[in-house]
């Protein structure tokens, strides 16, 4: 077997580019080394050979080891296993969470408190968003898909609305709308809201220019008027979540 010995820091760097693995093995801080296997792993799902044709797992154009051995146990990247069984897997580094099948978006306020979540699922020509949130000011709030992931709970760093067709803002704008434009979120007196909305033109295909993976869901302080460019006069950005990829 082709095995090499690397420091745990080196292996963690190789895997954490999106190739996740079981049981928190990336935290093997007490280990002086990990054994890394470069040999191809064979996968048989429901009697069919699902082994990759070239014998290498490509995690976002970055070749990674097929498996590692730590403390007598063999681990494999979760993304590789997910690819073999035909189920996409998504990693959210901010909440340190894994979602299988559909992206699960954790929503935060500007202080970093969790206030809700959204689940995204592909449908014909769109992405269906099912959102649940709490601890917001009652009333209507603009909500959009923004072009980038934010950093440090500074929602301004998420950039503008996701707008791959370079249109104007708003469903009521004759020159609009952005792909990232969503109907207003109506928050009740209890500070809670739920919203199910089909984001037309959006995609969860990482190779599509319409993909919303790795972007942000942002909630604003005020109601979106549906026509004022570029953001519907919806005010400050008060909450958001990063769409995992």
TrEMBL record:
It holds the Pfam family Sod_Cu. Residues 223-236 have a biased composition (Basic and acidic residues). GO terms for biological process: superoxide metabolic process. It comes from the Bacteria. Keywords: Signal. GO terms for molecular function: copper ion binding. This is Superoxide dismutase family protein. Residues 1-28 form the signal peptide. Belongs to the Cu-Zn superoxide dismutase family. Residues 223-245 are annotated as: Disordered. InterPro entries: SOD-like_Cu/Zn_dom_sf, SOD_Cu/Zn_/chaperone, SOD_Cu_Zn_dom. Residues 125-243 form the Superoxide dismutase copper/zinc binding domain. The keyword Signal applies.
């Amino acid at each position: 077997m082709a095995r090499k010995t690397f420091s745990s820091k080196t292996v963690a760097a190789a895997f954490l580019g999106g190739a996740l693995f079981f049981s928190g093995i990336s935290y093997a801080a007490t280990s002086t080394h990990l054994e890394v296997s470069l040999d191809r792993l064979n996968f048989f799902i429901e009697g069919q050979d699902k082994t990759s044709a070239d014998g290498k797992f490509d995690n976002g154009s970055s070749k990674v080891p097929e498996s590692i051995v730590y403390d007598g146990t063999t681990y494999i990247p979760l993304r590789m296993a997910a690819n073999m069984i035909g189920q996409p897997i998504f990693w959210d580094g901010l909440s340190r969470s894994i979602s299988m099948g559909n992206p699960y978006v954790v929503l935060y306020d500007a202080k970093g408190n969790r206030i809700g979540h959204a689940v995204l699922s592909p449908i014909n020509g769109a992405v269906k968003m099912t959102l649940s949130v709490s601890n917001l000011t009652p009333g209507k709030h603009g909500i959009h898909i923004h072009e980038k992931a934010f950093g440090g709970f500074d929602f301004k760093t998420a950039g503008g609305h996701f707008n791959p067709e370079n249109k104007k803002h708003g469903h009521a704008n004759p020159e609009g709308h952005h792909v990232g434009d969503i109907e207003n979120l109506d928050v009740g007196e209890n500070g809670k809201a739920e919203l199910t909305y089909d984001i037309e033109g959006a995609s969860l295909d990482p190779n599509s220019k319409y993909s919303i993976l790795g972007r942000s869901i942002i909630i604003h302080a005020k109601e979106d008027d549906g026509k004022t460019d570029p953001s519907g006069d919806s005010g400050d950005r008060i909450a958001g979540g990063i769409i995992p990829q």
